[in-house]
């Protein structure tokens, strides 16, 4: 299967089912009470990190995902069934971005981790909910809300503890094969590695017996000058470096190691300045092709970068044990690193809004805007605070639900806010497409 680490998809969660406006009907019962059931919630779209899935390629061909709607409520207090959630299995290390805002909406770094990227709509309440001592036969019900829709960009950033970074033919693939159990394709031409390859490296005792310590090692494809600007294959794979806890700069001692390291760090800095803050060391490779004095001279020149240098030969095995041990000693703690490098995930605004409009909060603290058109027609337009959303949920029954909505708005402090803004008896209040007359119950007392 081909390796794919970027994919754009469209997701649409299911709508919530409408609540039922129903009255009990039975033999010998002329006027039964309200018995409308609630609508079911819509299905959500969920990303799930799955072991064994190594690429986004399996999703190609299916770019749109739609979850089922919730069913409508029915009479006799029967609730509509919920729409089933749709799970999209992706590799561990997948990050999801909202294409419109650019914000991170999911970052899956552990097997089995799940994240909702499009939340299903809430089901509407049936008319049985709205009975009271003064409202014994409500002829209205609540409509379900729309499910969330999004255009999402999926990016796979490999979860590897250590990343090998270097120019083409520096010997990264050979070093990976020598240190781990990976078997990458190895040849003497640029861009042999067309996709990142992972290997597992065990810590060994003096006798060469594996201990109960290991790390994953990633061979990041060769970077060329200008990779951070999208040249060559560099930009397609630079993102994988950001997941590693330690970087190993693999330099060919027979070329110009000092200049290559300078250019490599410049490319990483241009892509993400924080990459140069990662723990790192230098593997000075192919030392079998030169004499020891030259290798020492090169090491002395590399001191300016402040990184430890290990002489290695991927071909003949020289220095591999020292490199392995140096990595184990320098590797940052996984949990501590994860805490300091966690991505900021966009809040679940759909869930927040659903909760926010349920509570009695002073509108002034909820970002509510109250705008007046002034004379001659005094119209007060309400923006924000969840009031429009509340109106929409009763749009099919606005006339029948007007008394109920008025009492809700009063409890939530809207009338007091209007009074403080200067509203007078008889003024018009506009919320969305709904208009009603402002009534000050304190006037005339």
From TrEMBL:
Residues 160-332 form the OBG-type G domain. Transmembrane segments: none annotated. Its cofactor is Mg(2+). GTP binds at residues 166-173, 191-195, 219-222, 285-288, 313-315. InterPro entries: G_OBG, GTP-bd, GTP-bd_Obg/CgtA, GTP-bd_prot_GTP1/OBG_C_sf, GTP1-OBG_CS, GTP1_OBG_dom, GTP1_OBG_dom_sf, OBG_GTPase. Its EC number is 3.6.5.-. One of its GO terms (molecular function) is magnesium ion binding. GO terms for cellular component: cytoplasm. One of its GO terms (biological process) is ribosome biogenesis. Keywords: Cytoplasm, GTP-binding, Hydrolase, Magnesium, Metal-binding, Nucleotide-binding. Mg(2+) binds at residues 173, 193. Residues 351-440 form the OCT domain. The keyword Nucleotide-binding applies. It is an enzyme of class 3 (hydrolase). It holds the Pfam family GTP1_OBG. Residues 1-159 form the Obg domain. It comes from the Bacteria. The keyword Membrane does not apply. It is found in: Cytoplasm. Monomer. Belongs to the TRAFAC class OBG-HflX-like GTPase superfamily. OBG GTPase family. An essential GTPase which binds GTP, GDP and possibly (p)ppGpp with moderate affinity, with high nucleotide exchange rates and a fairly low GTP hydrolysis rate. Plays a role in control of the cell cycle, stress response, ribosome biogenesis and in those bacteria that undergo differentiation, in morphogenesis control. This is GTPase Obg. It comes from Deinococcus arboris.
